[in-house]
Structures are given as structure tokens and as C-alpha cells.
Write a structure and sequence with these properties.
CATH topology: Jelly Rolls
CATH class: Mainly Beta
Radius of gyration: 16 Å
Structural class: alpha+beta
CATH superfamily: Jelly Rolls
Distance between the termini: 30 Å
Strand order of the largest sheet: 1-2-8-4-6
Order of helices and strands: HHHHHHEEEEEEEE
Strand content: 15-25%
């Protein structure tokens, strides 16, 4: 069993080793890692009670099973993150972005907070979440004020305003500056990624 301390230790390790991205991205990673190091987060007693199981878990969450082969090939730190998601999937409060004119997208994605206002562990300074996208689904263009770092755990494609679609690779990172329009898409297999918002 992986505990939250092991998850956070692996996350800090990865956030402090973003060498292939810009200096701006590296600084963002260090800021989030520092907040993870210095703050103890209270548990969300509702989600982590022995009696709690997420009500009506979204069907797309079953796609996590199809990520297991990819997870086995990850680096130790990334494997820790992915295995914690698998372990805690029935405790997470999975939700979907509402887009009523795109039913395939609605049925084909799920997000959840691990750390944050609605997470297993409560924080008002950072949000650490997970996104799961079924095969051949595009998560449409969107933006948000906080800068964001994705830690990629499976194959997928990313797009940022002013650029072309690209693949960061299974062991890659993606950095989204504040308010930039961005999107992501799965390929033949589900896309699984951790995202960190510095709020």
C-alpha cells in the first residue's frame, strides 16, 4: 500500500527535476514542491472515512485498468503516483467538465482532486489532480488563471495557443503558463496525467 507521504515524496521529486522545460516551468515546479514540503494538509474526513465510497463512479474510470501495462514501465516516482491513483480511485470524487454539445467528450473523461479544496487532503494553496481520458477523445480548449504543470503517465497529445499538437512522451511534462489556451487528446489508449495548479 502506498500512503500519502510516499505519493507526496514522489511528486516533490518529479517537480524538482523538470530540467527539459523552460526556466519558468522549473520555477513553477519548485514553488509547488515547496508548498508540498512545508504544509501539513488535513484529511478530508468525508472522503477518507472507512464507510465512504464514491457514489456512482463515472463509467470512464474503468479505463484505469487499461493503463496498468503502461504504469508498469514508468519510472519509480511516476509509478508511485499512478499506483496511488489506482489504489484510491474509489475514494476520489470524480467529476466531469460540462460541455452539453459534446456528448462523446462528456462520457469519455473524468477528473479528480487528490490534494486541494475538494481533494482527499485539503489545501487552499495548491491543487493536485488527475485526468483520465478514454481513447480517441479530445479535451477541448480551455484556460485558467493559475499556471499548471502536467506530469504525464501515458501516451497523449497536448496543444497550446500559438503552437502545434505535440507529444511530451510517457515520462514527459507539460507546462501551461497563466491563462494560456490549451487542450489535450488521447490516442489509441487512455490518457492518464497528474496536474498541479499553483493557486
Amino acid at each position: 500500500m502506498i500512503d500519502i507521504q510516499q505519493f507526496e515524496h514522489a511528486l516533490i521529486e518529479l517537480l524538482t527535476e523538470i530540467n527539459e522545460l523552460t526556466a519558468e516551468a522549473q520555477t513553477a515546479g519548485l514553488k509547488i514542491a515547496e508548498k508540498l514540503k512545508r504544509n501539513e494538509r488535513p484529511i478530508n474526513k468525508n472522503l477518507l472515512s472507512n464507510e465512504y465510497l464514491a457514489e456512482g463512479s463515472l463509467p470512464v474510470v474503468e479505463q484505469l485498468e487499461d493503463c496498468e501495462a503502461t504504469i508498469e514501465a514508468l519510472s519509480p516516482a511516476r509509478k508511485t503516483l499512478a499506483q496511488y491513483i489506482l489504489q484510491m480511485q474509489k475514494k476520489l470524487r470524480w467529476y466531469q467538465r460540462t460541455l452539453e454539445d459534446n456528448l462523446a467528450f462528456m462520457a469519455g473523461h473524468a477528473n479528480a482532486q487528490l490534494i486541494g479544496p475538494q481533494g482527499l487532503y485539503i489545501s487552499s494553496e495548491i491543487i493536485v489532480g488527475v485526468s483520465l481520458i478514454a481513447p480517441h477523445i479530445t479535451y477541448p480548449d480551455h484556460n485558467h488563471p493559475p499556471e499548471e504543470i502536467y506530469i504525464v503517465l501515458s501516451e497523449g497529445l497536448w496543444w497550446q495557443q500559438g503552437g502545434q499538437w505535440f507529444s511530451p512522451g510517457v515520462q514527459g511534462y507539460v507546462y501551461n503558463p497563466e491563462n494560456i489556451m490549451h487542450a489535450m487528446a488521447s490516442t489509441a489508449k487512455p490518457l492518464l496525467a497528474i496536474w498541479c495548479l499553483n493557486i
